[in-house]
Amino acid sequence: MPMPEVDAATIRALNDHARRSFTGCRVIITQGVQALDDVPSVLDQVRRFDAFTPDNDPYEEHDFGSIHHAGQTVFWKFGYLDVDLTMHSPDPSDPAVTARVLTIMLADEY
Predict the structure, then answer these.
(1) What is the 3-state secondary structure (H, E, C) of the chain?
(2) pLDDT of residue 46 exceeding 80
(3) How far apart are CA 49 and CA 51, in angstroms?
(4) What angle is formed at CA 76 by the lines to CA 90 and CA 49, rounded to 5 degrees?
(5) Domain residue limits at 23
(6) Is residue 2 part of a domain?
(7) Is residue 81 part of a domain?
(8) Which of 13, 38, 48, 106 has the highest count of CB atoms within 10 angstroms of its CB?
(9) What is the pLDDT of residue 2?
(10) What is the mean pLDDT of residues 73-94?
(11) Are 103 and 79 in contact (CB under 8 A)?
């Protein structure tokens, strides 16, 4: 069975909405992020991130970013699982078959 063609514009819109609102996704923060002084500030920086370039967003899906907080580099990254959370989503552009997972982690936890 051939894989569906990737719809980057739809994935980007879904990712931007999920990241800005923390709805339409599951948000996971690692222990390292949880231990930071001001977690709400970190979450706010993730929500407001818009520094996408061809170097950090080559597929134009807005699925990864890097921010700095209190001397730490923090990464955020989307993953796409099936709705049962058992394997990769068959189509990340289709919310009916995709559970979006936004993980926020310290760079050294990657």
Answers:
(1) CCCCCCCHHHHHHHHHHHHHHCCCCEEEECHHHHCCCCHHHHHHHHHHCCCCCCCCCCCCCCCEEEEEECCEEEEEEEEEECCCCCCECCCCCCCCCCEEEEEEEEHHHC
(2) yes
(3) 6
(4) 110
(5) 8-109
(6) no
(7) yes
(8) 106
(9) 53
(10) 97
(11) yes
Whose structure tokens read 């990712």?
15
Is pLDDT of 56 > 90?
yes
Is residue 1 assigned to a domain?
A: no
Check: CB of residue 27 under 8 Å from CB of residue 41. Answer: no
pLDDT over 50 at 91, yes or no: yes
Report the chain's mean pLDDT, rounded to a whole number: 95
**Quick one: residue 24, left, alpha or beta (phi over 0 = left, psi -120 to 50 = alpha)?**
left
Q: Is the pLDDT of residue 4 over 70?
A: no
Instruction: Report how many domains make up the chain.
Output: 1
- According to the model, what pLDDT value does residue 1 have? 47
Q: Give domain status of residue 52, yes or no.
A: yes
Please report, for residues 2, 16, 65, the alpha-carbon distance to residue 50 in angstroms, rounded to integers and kept in the order given: 33, 9, 9
